[in-house]
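Q: What residues go here?
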């Protein structure tokens, strides 16, 4: 039994108030900068020295005082049946979470806490990210011990057993991404988010610039420059300018994708431990998440329009705590299928074999979907053509209808589903196909849905109850849907879930 087990209120680490004060100060940087620039723009330096600087000192002092008082008033208590957190200066708030409600405990280190050697402990309850319990901040070792203690009490074991398991099994690396892999991943994460952010800042603070940023004529005059050299090139100058602008956007998009990916995925490591799949990643914000094996309900293998041409895929798990954040359950965000196979085997699942019997969706479902898309869009195009002064505007809804019909055709060609002895596989999509792997015994329910057209035409949608996610097979031939329902219900009925979900039944479980 550790010191954490003593049932008395405890405070977070003393450095917590300094981290929170520094975090609040970062939110004051922009207002302070705007105020200083405004005062200097008026040319009155004395006001800046006599009034503005002392005001900043007072604000910073109050900031540190508020952070210190909040730290003194935040306590947590690890009790026999729950963990209790109390906070608040003027009005006190207390929250208790029973151990059986805690689905997992994860550690997160953002940049400032990481510099101080602190971690944020998150208790995932499955009620959503905003309702999860958090403790910020604890020392690294204290966070590890608290996580092990809560897990042990949740599972009805002694903490010493949990620590011993941690010491004897550090984990086998299942998947890792080095700097080269992370940069390659970033090349496929093209993003122009920084352009949108800079554009928004320019829109808000354009009064600080010595010229009108959105004046197109002014930009043409500046680009012409001395001697009007570019202006003399005529249309060629405009083509060159557009090409340069597109090149700059491409460079910015690629650089943004690489930077964002590096910050999120740096030193990515997925390990097999006695507690499950342990994933650590992040450059500035370091996260440490454990995904218990016995909580994995399904797997998803996804890809992108371009990255699939190079064989890159992503593997994520659907678990009982997936509603907290889907990103928290990525097991391999950028990997080849050969690297994904060992991870799926570790979770007790398997990728579809080469000789598996795939079945297409119903051709009638695709034909009906295409006809409905064309009919709806044609009904919209008719009044647009009649009332709009531009007759060609009616082509827009017609083009949407044609695209919808083409999509139904390609879904018929590429959508597949298969039922194996232990698993079921659903492959959906044609530009960026997604493969969902479900376990026949872990499903909660099977529902067969038919609309009025589907009843007449002989096809149905099969909706499968999946804890932590959604699972459906659309447009199945009716005889296949009924056969699937019978087989899956038989698998569920013959399974003893009290043994299946027992933590001690697997050496990989928490």
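A:
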């Amino acid at each position: 039994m550790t010191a954490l087990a003593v049932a008395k209120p405890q405070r977070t680490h003393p450095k917590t108030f300094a981290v929170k004060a520094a975090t609040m100060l970062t939110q004051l940087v922009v207002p302070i900068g705007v105020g200083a620039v405004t005062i200097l723009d008026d040319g009155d330096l004395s006001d800046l020295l006599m009034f503005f600087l002392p005001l900043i000192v007072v604000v910073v002092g109050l900031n540190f005082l508020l952070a210190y008082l909040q730290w003194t008033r935040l306590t947590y208590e690890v009790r026999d049946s729950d963990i209790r957190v109390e906070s608040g200066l003027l009005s006190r708030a207390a929250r208790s979470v029973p151990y059986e409600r805690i689905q997992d405990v994860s550690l997160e280190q953002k940049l400032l806490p990481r510099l101080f050697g602190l971690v944020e402990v998150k208790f995932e309850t499955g009620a959503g990210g905003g309702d999860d319990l958090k403790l910020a901040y604890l020392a690294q070792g204290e966070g590890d011990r608290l996580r092990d203690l809560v897990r042990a009490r949740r599972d009805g074991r002694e903490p010493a057993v949990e620590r011993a398991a941690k010491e004897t099994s550090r984990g086998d690396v299942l998947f890792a991404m080095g700097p080269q892999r992370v940069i390659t991943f970033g090349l496929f994460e093209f993003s122009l988010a920084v352009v949108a952010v800079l554009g928004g800042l320019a829109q808000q603070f354009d009064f600080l610039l010595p010229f009108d940023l959105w004046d197109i004529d002014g930009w043409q005059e500046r680009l012409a420059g001395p001697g009007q050299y570019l202006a003399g090139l005529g249309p060629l100058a405009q083509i060159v300018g557009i090409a340069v602008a597109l090149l700059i956007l491409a460079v910015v998009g690629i650089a943004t994708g690489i930077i964002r990916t590096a910050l999120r995925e740096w030193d990515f490591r997925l390990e097999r431990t006695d507690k499950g799949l342990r994933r650590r990643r992040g450059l500035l914000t370091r996260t440490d998440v454990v995904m218990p094996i016995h909580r994995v309900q399904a797997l998803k293998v996804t890809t992108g329009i371009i990255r699939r041409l190079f064989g890159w895929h992503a593997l994520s798990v659907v678990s009982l705590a997936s509603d907290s954040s889907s990103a928290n359950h990525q097991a391999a965000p950028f990997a080849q299928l050969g690297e994904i196979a060992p991870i799926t085997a570790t979770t007790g699942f398997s990728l579809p074999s080469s000789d598996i019997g795939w079945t297409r969706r119903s051709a009638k479902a695709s034909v009906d979907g295409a006809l409905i898309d064309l009919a709806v869009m044609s009904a919209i195009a008719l009044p647009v053509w009649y009332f709009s002064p531009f007759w060609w505007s009616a082509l827009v809804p017609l083009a949407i209808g044609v695209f919808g019909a083409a999509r139904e055709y390609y879904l018929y060609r590429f959508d597949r589903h298969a039922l194996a002895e232990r698993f079921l596989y659903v492959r959906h999509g044609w530009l960026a196909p997604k493969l969902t792997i479900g376990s026949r015994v872990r499903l909660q329910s099977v529902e067969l849905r038919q609309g009025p057209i589907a009843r007449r035409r002989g096809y149905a949608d099969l909706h499968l109850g999946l804890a932590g996610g959604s699972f459906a097979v659309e447009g199945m031939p009716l005889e296949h849907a009924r056969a699937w329902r019978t087989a899956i219900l038989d698998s569920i009925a013959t399974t003893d879930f009290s043994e299946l979900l027992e933590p001690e039944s697997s050496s990989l479980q928490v």
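A: Context that may help when evaluating the design: Residues 1-6, 160-169, 501-510 have pLDDT under 50 and may be disordered. The chain has 17 helices and 21 strands.
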